[in-house]
Design brief:
The chain is α/β, with parallel strands linked by helices. Helix content is about 40%, strand content about 15%. The structure holds ligand 0PR.
Length: about 375
């Protein structure tokens, strides 16, 4: 730190320079985050100094959090879920498994996740001292139910299903997982960090939520498809007692259930604002548009003789491109931000709300050219 401070204008110049080096979302196909809705930004700014680590000071903000949880619950098929706004999918997944572990008395607890699970479950397992058992996937990259059944033993404290996998946007057979969870009396956590704000707005009814009796908890992130500001994750429990498992007494008036202590109310207000403003119809419009772009991407890819690894279920398409590393490096030289999947290796594109038909067309024009050079 400098001995003497630097003039405000100079600092702002530094900030602008740094910001200019960041990617512009117009060319980003690799992110599950997007530009926040302008109203979310306004709300965020208004609540910038709020801290729900001490809700006693911010009862107004706390009320907004409760409303957000109620809105998420009704979207996820129940009127009575309990939960809180986390920093994102990682915190939600850790906390859900923490509850499952605390509810059980197993000495060597294990949790069964699909092989497609997000890496946050590795963190959760490491922090919570859980053995992570990975169930294999079927041909469409959904968790294989027989594999899950074979991995269950008396030390299994939780099953995890994914509604919108990170790599392919696939939805696991949550209904079948729910049957197993109910009949074996095992906690079932659904990671819908990405899909939770998409699937309810699709034409097809995929059951993945609290309408299924076996589902105990759900992760759903407003800072992904919710167009809210970062950090805004959601964690919901069917039963209030499960949230209560996380309660820690403090020297303050209120107990605390969050993993973090001090936590911003700004992104919570932002989420409230954007949920209220868009409503179901607004989100459906966003989802319809993203799905339409995904269809356009699929059609264009097929016209280039490139097949998707799976027929897209959500707004993610993974393309089986030959000489992938070379193609990606050439795309990056043209300032496109893309990512790749691991097994099988594929070019992964996420059609977030910031993608336009023009940017998609211009991306595919470049992809077509790059592929013709590489061939
Ligand atoms: N669960 C699923 C299914 C996810 O896809 C992710 C993140 C998480 C949990 C964890 O969520 P948080 O990152 O909010 O803790 N999925 C993306 C990923 O890690 C997140 C992401 C977002 C990556 C923007 C890149 C990016 O630019 O791949």
């Amino acid at each position: 730190m400098d001995e003497n401070g630097v003039a405000e204008g100079e600092v702002l110049d530094f900030l602008c320079q740094a910001r200019e080096r960041d990617a512009s979302f117009d060319r980003v196909f690799s992110s599950m985050c997007t530009r926040p809705h302008p109203l979310a930004i306004k709300a965020h700014q208004k609540f910038i100094e709020t801290n729900l680590g001490d809700p006693h000071l911010f009862p107004g903000t706390k009320e907004l959090e409760d409303s957000v949880i109620a809105m998420l619950a009704s979207l996820l098929g129940t009127q009575n879920a309990s939960g809180y706004i986390t920093t994102g999918g990682t915190e939600s997944n850790i906390q859900a498994l923490r509850v499952a572990r605390n509810l059980s008395s197993e000495r060597n607890p294990n949790v069964i996740v699909p092989a497609s699970a997000h890496f946050s479950f590795e963190k959760a397992a490491s922090i919570l001292g859980l053995e992570l058992r990975k169930a294999s996937l079927d041909k469409r990259y959904r968790v294989d139910i027989t594999s899950v059944e074979n991995l269950i033993d008396e030390n299994t404290i939780a099953l995890v299903g994914i509604a919108g996998t990170t790599e392919y946007g696939q939805i696991d057979p949550i209904e079948q997982l729910s049957h197993i969870a109910s009949s074996e009396d095992i906690f079932l956590h659904v990671d819908a960090a990405f899909g939770g704000l998409i699937i309810p707005f699709l034409e097809e009814d995929h059951k993945f939520d609290f309408r299924l009796d076996g589902v105990s908890s759900i992760t759903v992130d407003p800072h992904k498809m919710g167009a809210s500001t970062i950090p805004s994750g959601g964690l919901l429990f069917r039963r209030r007692e499960h949230l209560d498992q996380l309660m820690i007494s403090t020297y303050m008036k209120e107990k605390q259930h969050s993993l973090t202590g001090t936590r911003s109310g700004a992104s919570i207000a932002a989420t409230y604002a954007v949920f209220k403003h868009l409503g179901r119809r607004g989100y459906k419009r966003i989802v319809d548009r993203c799905m339409r772009l995904t269809k356009i991407a699929e059609k264009r890819a097929r016209s280039l003789d490139i097949d998707p690894v799976i027929k897209p279920v959500l707004n993610i398409i993974a393309l089986s491109v030959q000489n992938l590393d070379e193609v990606v490096s050439k795309l990056e030289k043209r300032n496109w931000y893309v990512s790749t999947t691991i097994k099988p290796k594929a070019l992964r594109l996420i059609m977030m709300p910031h993608i336009t038909e023009e940017s998609l067309r211009s991306f595919f024009d470049d992809l077509e050219e790059v592929i013709s050079y590489v061939r």
